[in-house]
Amino acid sequence: MRIAFDGLNIRKGGGQTVMLRLARAFARAGHGVEIFTGTPDMGERGAALGDEVRFTYIPAAASAFGALKVRHAQWDGLMAEKRCDTAFGFNYWIPTSLPQATYHINVIPFLPFAERRGAVGFTRALIQSRYARAALTRSAVNIFESEHIRDLARQAHGSAIRNPHVRYIGVELPREAAIPAMPARTIAAVTSPALHKHNEYLFDLHRLLAERHPDNPVGLKLIGITPEALDANEHVAARKDYALGQESIDFVGYVDRPRLFAELANSLALVSFSELESFFMVALESMAVGCPAIATDVSSIRESVGAAGLLVPPGDVAAAADHVERLLDPVFRKARQVQGLAWVERFESESCADAIVALCDELAHAAG
User: Fold this and answer.
1) Mind listing the pLDDT tens digit for each residue in 252-302?
2) How far is Cα 227 from Cα 310, in angstroms, rounded to an integer?
């Protein structure tokens, strides 16, 4: 097959990781892949994927509305030009005459409207939901990144979903990463300015740990955001003076994957108060380098981390602090490391991506 990937709305972060990982898997299985993107440098980021993966940059698709226009007005023409015979979309149904597989990697389209609007704004809440729900009955196969997304889709849509399957995308396992016996006395957070990340609780956690350990504080490093992100919402902005006034709070900003793994490996724990995750990839990445994960017991998080994760109720800063203190004990932390490393093996990225390719091949052969 030659497969057209709809990457028009995928700009960065986890979505990009998922798309490029799957493109590599389809190419590994002998298929050609054409990725259509509205991001100018996407081809540079995917340069290592090989000759079987090609990128077509479409400037008109740089905005969400532009991407919609391209799908409705140009998609089939582009497919014919590139000699593609099937389409692979992410979250969105594509108005196309070609058979389509849709991989649902975003939980937001299936939430109630008020929650969608709070997460992405009014316009995107409408558009994302409409096209994600259209895919449920119009795509030849619907693949869900987690059971959580599939179950929400069933609740929200209220009718039969065409060929529903759950396939995890998995995580890269950095075998060469050095895992220190006892890392720095610092917790890490891989986050963004999004409201559902609840970064305000991270600063509350830092403050509480400082009160409990005034002579030997626990540091906090924020990966993925800069101090400018503190103005993103009123709850975080209220902690701005505190956050910027603490020497033991470090804003790392965006880092590449080798440095991400290095930062996590040298952290006491990963901590997240996020309340909205489609698949909690970062927690598994953390456990893959021996860094235990403390996270909120909601969304797909329990499904992603299993018993290897240390879970707390939403917003329960005191419970998170208790887990951090337990991890200061080398014996307890070693036991959590071992459990985490064993759990994450089942999510090895190539095996997970190959399972998605095998599913698409199976359905293609059945249809043919």
Assistant:
1) 998 988 899 999 999 999 999 999 898 999 999 999 999 999 999 998 999
2) 28
